[in-house]
Amino acid sequence: MSSAGDPLALARSALAEEPAWLVGGAIRDRLLGRPSDILDLDIVVEGDPQRAARAIRSAGPRGTAVFALSDAFGSWRIVGPGGAWQIDVSALQGGTLDADLARRDLTVNAIAEPLAGGDPIDPSGGLGDLRDRRLRMVAAEAFDQDPLRILRLARLALELDFTVDAPTATAARARASGLGGVAGERVFAELRRVVAADDPLSGLELLEGLGAVGVVLPELEALRGVEQTVYHHRDVHGHTLEVLAEVVAIERDPAAAVGEELASGVADLLAEPLADGLTRGGALRWAALLHDIAKPQTHTDLGDGRIGFPDHDRQGAAMSREILERLRTSERLRAHVAALTRHHLRLGFLVHERPLGQRIVHRYLVACEPVGADVTVLGLADRLATRGRGAEEAICAHQEVALPMLGAALAWHHEGPSRPLVRGDELAAELGITLGPRIGELLGAIAEAQYAGEVTTREQAVTEARKVLAAEAG
């Protein structure tokens, strides 16, 4: 790798005459032998970080950018062409390297090396904690200075497969309320990685143990103890986590859930990039967490020992959007997860209409657009996680509907609806009625018949519209 493409070599060249040190995660990950998709370096300098950052930028290849970060430390970021790497440059906090390292969160992040090269500088024993695979705080005050470090503690424990030592967990838990004052986008950046991890349930358990869930996702915590119908074996909270587990299982091995014929299509769907650094599979995990989020307030005693949650799909969609707005996610992710929540019950309602005709399939795909394939996977995961009374029979019945629908939804996702046989203005002229919502409804009826293979020409499409109008009039 040329020095232009190697950020460490670039920084060393640009700052050769300036006291500077490499710190934090880059050292930790290198010592652990962890690969990195992009090179991400943190450098502290004795002098002016702006001047140092601009020196690195000037030495970098065309397309290298530099800008100030909106943090309390006056840090600057240099980003390589195409985002291939990044370097954050900060001034020493406290005036000396030892003082700077003493202000960091965890000992494994408080290791430094001279930028020019040399032995690690490890005043807090981070090298030993790396060997013991342990996360230990440098000082409890670190969580006061930035409560986000509580989320980062859980995320690192999950990603590194490290244990959190007891005093550190206790100190973090005592300060968890401070997370309420952290910017939503910073909270989401950590939660996103926890939910997207190989074992998100362990990550959520870690967050729960640190007292963080009730602060950053209080709606999820509110699901505890909300009892369900006899067809469920867990309360709403437990069921939610089991749906998440089923989604993860489908991502890992789609063939086990949907069969070999559909497996590659599902794998490709869930691997598609969506928004906010998430794939469609990552977004589906968020929908699994939020799909029943409105059950506490819609819990209804129907009498005779029966329980219901009327309207929890619609109210849950609104709540999902509100939660993701609070976390400052993109509109695309909010709309996607809200749609998944809104439609997650729709497939289950079709079980009693087996076998499904093509018109019913079309109505489902139109109603769920643009998440038809995703929500079919969510509905399947939801059913697989529901193992109360009559579970096996119910699961088999659901699969009988879900698998053909999934095949249709995957085709719709890639190909979209068929080209219309007649335009709206043409149909209005043929029928002698004005353009408006009624023409839209008739075009929808024609599209449904076309999907079912019942009309294939423009003339047949007009005839179908006349039949609809005649049936309504008669």
TrEMBL record:
<dbReference type="GO" id="GO:0000049">
    <property type="term" value="F:tRNA binding"/>
</dbReference>
<comment type="similarity">
    <text>Belongs to the tRNA nucleotidyltransferase/poly(A) polymerase family.</text>
</comment>
<dbReference type="InterPro" id="IPR002646">
    <property type="entry name" value="PolA_pol_head_dom"/>
</dbReference>
<keyword id="KW-0548">Nucleotidyltransferase</keyword>
<dbReference type="GO" id="GO:0008033">
    <property type="term" value="P:tRNA processing"/>
</dbReference>
<dbReference type="InterPro" id="IPR006675">
    <property type="entry name" value="HDIG_dom"/>
</dbReference>
<dbReference type="Pfam" id="PF01966">
    <property type="entry name" value="HD"/>
</dbReference>
<keyword id="KW-0808">Transferase</keyword>
<keyword id="KW-0479">Metal-binding</keyword>
<keyword id="KW-0819">tRNA processing</keyword>
<dbReference type="InterPro" id="IPR032828">
    <property type="entry name" value="PolyA_RNA-bd"/>
</dbReference>
<keyword id="KW-0547">Nucleotide-binding</keyword>
<keyword id="KW-0694">RNA-binding</keyword>
<dbReference type="GO" id="GO:0016779">
    <property type="term" value="F:nucleotidyltransferase activity"/>
</dbReference>
<dbReference type="InterPro" id="IPR006674">
    <property type="entry name" value="HD_domain"/>
</dbReference>
<keyword id="KW-0820">tRNA-binding</keyword>
<dbReference type="InterPro" id="IPR003607">
    <property type="entry name" value="HD/PDEase_dom"/>
</dbReference>
<dbReference type="Pfam" id="PF12627">
    <property type="entry name" value="PolyA_pol_RNAbd"/>
</dbReference>
<dbReference type="Pfam" id="PF01743">
    <property type="entry name" value="PolyA_pol"/>
</dbReference>
<keyword id="KW-0460">Magnesium</keyword>
<feature type="domain" description="HD">
    <location>
        <begin position="236"/>
        <end position="387"/>
    </location>
</feature>
<dbReference type="GO" id="GO:0046872">
    <property type="term" value="F:metal ion binding"/>
</dbReference>
<protein>
    <submittedName>
        <fullName>Unannotated protein</fullName>
    </submittedName>
</protein>
<dbReference type="InterPro" id="IPR050124">
    <property type="entry name" value="tRNA_CCA-adding_enzyme"/>
</dbReference>
<dbReference type="InterPro" id="IPR043519">
    <property type="entry name" value="NT_sf"/>
</dbReference>
<dbReference type="GO" id="GO:0000166">
    <property type="term" value="F:nucleotide binding"/>
</dbReference>
